[in-house]
Amino acid sequence: MIDIGFVESLIRMLDESSLDSLEIRRGGTRIRLAKSPDGRAVVASRSANDDAPGAAALPGPPPPEAAAEAPPPVEAGSAQLAEIASPMVGTFYRAPSPEAAPYVEVGGAVAEGDVLCVIEAMKLMNELECETSGRIVEICVDNAEPVDFGQVLFRIDPA
């Protein structure tokens, strides 16, 4: 069962934030809110295992339609590139502040655990750490651009 008070609090938080849309999954329930006219106002669905103990916590896996839209992996020579995707909806920032240097540049070396960028979500700054060592081949998003859950942000050559 969807708690109407919870949905109302999500709507208030979205209205007060600079985000355009928000999607939350709990178990088999999905709630998606959007400010833009082309977005869906509220979408909720239930599955048979909603009440199962140990249901998945936030954030869940990307929705099936998002996985179908993902481009195939890019190859550089014989090595396959690692793709670093956004773990949330928010605003992508390459540096910790407007006057600071970017965390990484194309061609730069990175190690596992290095900070790649900041994603602002609901006025919280979330550092995204590198999942693999290698060289940055591509930065797929411009600074201060909105990003979606699962959107590819970086391509890294692990070689």
Descriptive account of the structure:
With 159 residues, the chain is mainly beta. The chain has helices at residues 4-16, 64-69; strands at 21-26, 29-34, 42-43, 75-76, 79-80, 82-85, 90-93, 109-110, 115-121, 124-129, 134-139, 145-147, 152-157. A four-stranded antiparallel β-sheet has the order 6-13-11-8, with no helix packed on it. The longest helix has 13 residues, at 4-16. The protein is elongated. Mean pLDDT is 75; it is low at 38-78.
With strands numbered from the N-terminus, the spatial order across the biggest sheet is 6-13-11-8
**Percentage of residues in helical conformation:** 10-25%
User: How do the helices and strands follow one another from N- to C-terminus?
Assistant: HEEEHEEEEEEEEEE
Total helix count?
Answer: 2
Structural class: mainly beta
**Ends apart, CA distance between termini:** 48 Å
Query: Total strand count, please?
Result: 13
Strand content: 35-45%
Provide mean pLDDT, rounded: 75
Mass-distribution shape? elongated
Largest sheet: 4 strands, antiparallel
What's the alpha carbon Rg, rounded to whole Å? Answer: 17 Å
Note poorly predicted spans.
38-78
